[in-house]
């Protein structure tokens, strides 16, 4: 199938998700000797994972060229998938 | 802090040692080790250890293994130690005696048994009449009569004497020959093997001795025979001549042997009892004595004060634990009943203290990989808490595959869940121990690899279509009328995103699965991964430079903030931050419509440095050239600031000394952003030494040189380190290609056969696939990605802010011993 993918929706969703992890969750970490470490871990994870996902989606947002497929693949995808 | 420990006697600080908090530097190097106060005690401990080793050997010889020490006993006081010494020596003495007795009893028993055999076998030759040639294996030479026939007995006038004994089987032939030659036939010798083997006292092995019976005539012959037997180390026994006396002797021997056996049994029982006692007490004693010895060795490093009444030691102690140490000292003094208290006092110093970073079982692994490069200097910012996440993440970029990540994650999960099992903890294989120590590291690495695997859309090199693909083949086919006939004549066709409806928006999570079917997927992936590596690298390095700010603030070097941090960050961001901006801008602004004229970022970047422009390379945005010029000028301007700023500042300070701000005790820097908190950074109180008030003439040549090196290293490093991050692309490409090869060339062949036989063939094919996956992709690629991630952290990240010239605080601790 070839549904249209919006660009805005995943952007909002993932930004919200990692924002939750990296900005909101640190406030709820219970007090204890490991609080600092856990907060550091949460923020670092959020930043790294969000950036990685963002790079992946931005690289595909405006492709300059398309995939080159073998004729068998085209036939299979065209007639059996779609 | 540096503390001065005043000890009244040797016993009071016993509770303190248990806390394991202090390490004393050498206070008194002039006194030789032999003159120190507690040498006698140390020697005593060593003697006790010798006794213990002897006891241990005896236990081992008897086939028992002393168990491990049940609980960890306290270090004993001097009286207890004396008692332990007495008891152990007593036990050792008893053990020696009993063993000796037993050995002698055994020897006697053996003798008696041999005599018995001799007599018994000899009977056969001398008492019963037997025909020629029938006695059991006589070994006489053929010229002589093999036996002494009793019928012959009557014919001979002379009295026949006997020599009987046992001889080693190897010497029999030589013995015989010598006897015959020496005595010229005046004797009859018979040899027979003993029915049961006996122990040779000299070598301890079991040998089947040979019993010989020599009958001879004449006294001189007898003497000769005896001399020859002596030479051959034979054991000679008196052989009674008459039958009756022989029988009597045999009976007597029997009873003697019985008695002796009973005594021997009782001795063995007693020995077993003693060994039991030893086995019970030995483990505890050993640990106690070891602790004592360790304490005395430490105390030996103290020195006496003027009044010769108390010991002084200088120790490093974490400030937070100072009250604990004082409490322990008070408790010890009370317990040992001395009137004067021992105490510890803080002492100001200008020496550089050791670094203590408290870790728990989770953070210890990450701290150790940071420490492997260099222990943090006293109180500088610790990169480990960030490395907890960035290291597995960078590993995962190079390792990204859902399947492999899952396997790694499960392996680490198993280790973590069973980490308390003694079987896992006490493995002796060094490689296993390395993996086990890093179990949390591997757990995180696996978890992040699963995430990056989803983003790369690779699961054992296969893509998964979690969301439907964004590229529509049908639309393209309809638009370009790709009929089946057309397809048959064109082996390869490209989807054109310019056609409406072919490309329908970016895949929401990761790389579109259509690319795994495409033959030009590397074209796309390479561009994506290279840009991703550069972006992440520049972000990582900027983060490193920012961490340096914490150092500047903490050590109250605000001038460095202005004169070093700002130039550094401007240089990095103006040039490479701008590159990141270009990358993102091109992604957003340029699409398939202008793909033919899309500008090349790389050429723009090069032209930026060379202040040229290329007519065919269109600008990305209007006004690009002036903007770039400004940025380059800004970056170049920051270089001399970096080069000369700090040295000039210090030179000016030197020349115009103002009244120094009172350097009192500086409060511990424990608050912070989410970054610097009590668990991660090295936090001990700053000593009031540091930049001391005395006017030291700073060596400016050295400072300038140091700063020049730093500048060059930083600027050139920015370029080379950015390129170095491209290894993220390279290794992830290698991993993807390797797993694709394994799939196409190994696993796929298992699916070719569609019959039942094909199903059976699938099993060994899968086995090969699994083995190769684990060996090549998990182990080899895993180690490789681990190594490169480590290098990126140690070099590219840490050289932006980390000094790492400290030394660790190794507190005095009673380490659990491994005995052998």
Write the layout of secondary structure elements.
The complex is a heterodimer of chains A (82) and B (820).
Chain A: H1 8-24, H2 35-61, E1 68-70, H3 71-81
Helix pairs in contact in A: 1-2
Chain B: E1 2-7, H1 14-19, H2 39-61, H3 78-126, H4 150-155, E2 160-167, H5 172-183, E3 187-193, E4 198-199, E5 206-207, E6 210-217, H6 219-231, E7 235-237, H7 243-300, E8 303-304, E9 311-316, H8 322-336, E10 343-347, H9 363-371, H10 384-399, H11 402-417, H12 422-425, H13 430-437, H14 439-456, H15 473-479, H16 484-489, E11 492-494, H17 521-554, H18 558-589, H19 601-610, H20 624-655, H21 700-724, H22 727-747, H23 756-797
Antiparallel strand pairs in B: 1-9, 1-10, 2-6, 2-7, 3-6, 4-5, 8-9
Task: Write up this protein.
The complex is a heterodimer of chains A (82) and B (820). Chain A is mainly alpha-helical and 82 residues long. Chain A has one domain (7-81). In chain A, 67% of the residues lie in helices and 4% in strands. The longest helix of chain A is centred in the middle third of the chain and has 27 residues, at 35-61. The mean pLDDT of chain A is 89. By secondary structure, chain B is of the alpha+beta class. Chain B has 4 domains: 1-28 and 301-351; 107-125 and 159-262, Alpha-Beta Plaits (2-Layer Sandwich), CATH 3.30.70; 362-470 and 505-513 and 522-656 and 699-800, no CATH class; 475-504, no CATH class. Chain B has 23 helices and 11 strands. In chain B, the strands form 3 sheets. A 4-stranded antiparallel β-sheet of chain B has the order 8-9-1-10, covered by helices on one side. Chain B has a 4-stranded antiparallel β-sheet with strand order 3-6-2-7, with helices on both faces. In chain B, strand 8 and strand 9 form a beta hairpin. Chain B is elongated, with a radius of gyration of 45 Å. The two termini of chain B are 38 Å apart. Strand 1 (68-70) of chain A pairs antiparallel with strand 11 of chain B.
